[in-house]
């Protein structure tokens, strides 16, 4: 039986409530929200085969030294960063990533984390801005999920500068370990942006709603959903999100812009008593 949108959403959230959380399965349920007829168990055989292919190609080393060989092995099996421009939503839908062997860094990281979990290799996600990274707990370097390159602090500063400019400093929070909910929220933000850029506002709205459910949202998350509501010509939803963004924002320029947008919206109909 095909899962409904609501059932897929609840299954995704339910995976994150498990102990330990079933992060990769949750990501597959995100794909099920967008892919009619897809169910996560359809990927079971692919994942088992990939696990076997990886395990036979790993060197005989202690498990805490196997993270980089794991990432190199995944890359050697054809899993690479998606360099198609403009990037399409399938770069962040995990069933499509498995099918095409192409994905965003976060998508490749989620796959690597799942393989590491199955093979008992220590590995965690790192919520680095603009390019998701991985790390062995306690290590002095990060790992690029796209091939396994080691990144030391100087490399991370260079990566940050390439994406946001040299004026942006590298902060300790950039190296923070990402929780399963934070990873799924980031995946949802990526999909929200990709669906919006391809003018699929109904799909983008699903992602925007999921962002708000997974972890505490930012003002930018409410602004993003307000813009989707604006394109869908839903002023009530737009007003709701702009008001919430205004409550969360501490940027005076953003607050001024939000206030102006709110003033330009039609007033909601008054209730009759």
Question: Care to give the gist of this entry?
Answer:
This protein has helices at 5-17, 23-34, 44-56, 67-76, 94-100, 105-118, 153-164, 180-197, 201-214, 219-231, 235-248, 252-264, and strands at 80-81, 102-103, 124-126, 133-135, 142-143, 150-151.
Structural features, described:
With 273 residues, this protein is mainly alpha-helical. The chain has two domains: 5-175, no CATH class; 217-273, no CATH class. The protein has twelve helices and six strands. It has helices at 5-17, 23-34, 44-56, 67-76, 94-100, 105-118, 153-164, 180-197, 201-214, 219-231, 235-248, 252-264, and strands at 80-81, 102-103, 124-126, 133-135, 142-143, 150-151. It has a two-stranded parallel sheet. A hairpin with a 6-residue loop joins β5 (142-143) and β6. α8 packs antiparallel against α9 and α10 runs antiparallel to α11 (235-248). The protein is globular.
Quote the distance from N terminus to C terminus.
Answer: 46 Å
List how many beta strands DSSP finds: 6
Assembly type: single chain
Estimate the strand proportion.
Answer: 5-15%
Into how many domains do the coordinates divide? 2
- Biggest sheet layout: 2 strands, parallel
Give the overall pLDDT as a whole number. Answer: 95
H/I helix tally: 12
Radius of gyration: 20 Å
Helix content: 55-70%
SSE diagram, text form:
Elements lengths: L4 H13 L5 H12 L9 H13 L10 H10 L3 E2 L12 H7 L1 E2 L1 H14 L5 E3 L6 E3 L6 E2 L6 E2 L1 H12 L15 H18 L3 H14 L4 H13 L3 H14 L3 H13 L9
Parallel strand pairs: 1-2
Antiparallel strand pairs: 3-4, 5-6
Helix pairs in contact: 1-2, 2-8, 8-9, 9-10, 10-11, 11-12
């Amino acid at each position: 039986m095909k899962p409904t949108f609501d059932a897929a959403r609840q299954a995704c959230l339910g995976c994150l409530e498990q102990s330990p959380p079933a992060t990769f399965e949750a990501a597959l349920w995100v794909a099920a929200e967008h892919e009619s007829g897809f169910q996560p168990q359809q990927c079971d055989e692919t994942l088992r085969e990939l696990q076997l292919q990886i395990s036979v190609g790993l060197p005989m080393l202690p498990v805490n030294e196997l993270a980089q060989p794991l990432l190199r092995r995944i890359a050697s099996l054809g899993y690479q960063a998606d360099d198609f421009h403009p990037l399409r939503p399938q770069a962040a839908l995990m069933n499509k990533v498995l099918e095409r062997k192409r994905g965003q860094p976060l998508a490749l990281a989620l796959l690597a984390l799942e393989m590491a979990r199955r093979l008992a290799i220590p590995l965690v996600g790192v919520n680095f801005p603009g390019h998701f990274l991985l790390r062995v707990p306690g290590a002095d370097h990060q790992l690029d999920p796209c091939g396994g390159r080691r990144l030391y602090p100087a490399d991370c500063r260079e990566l940050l500068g390439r994406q946001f400019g040299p004026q942006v400093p590298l902060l300790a929070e950039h190296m923070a370990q990402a929780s399963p909910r934070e990873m799924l929220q980031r995946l949802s933000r990526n999909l929200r942006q990709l669906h919006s850029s391809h003018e699929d506002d109904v799909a983008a709205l699903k992602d925007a709603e999921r962002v708000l459910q997974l972890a505490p949202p930012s003002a930018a998350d409410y602004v993003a959903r307000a813009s989707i509501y604006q394109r869908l010509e839903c002023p009530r939803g737009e007003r709701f999100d702009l008001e919430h963004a205004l409550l969360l924002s501490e940027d005076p320029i953003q607050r001024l812009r939000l206030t102006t947008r709110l003033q330009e919206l039609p007033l909601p109909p008054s209730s009759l008593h």
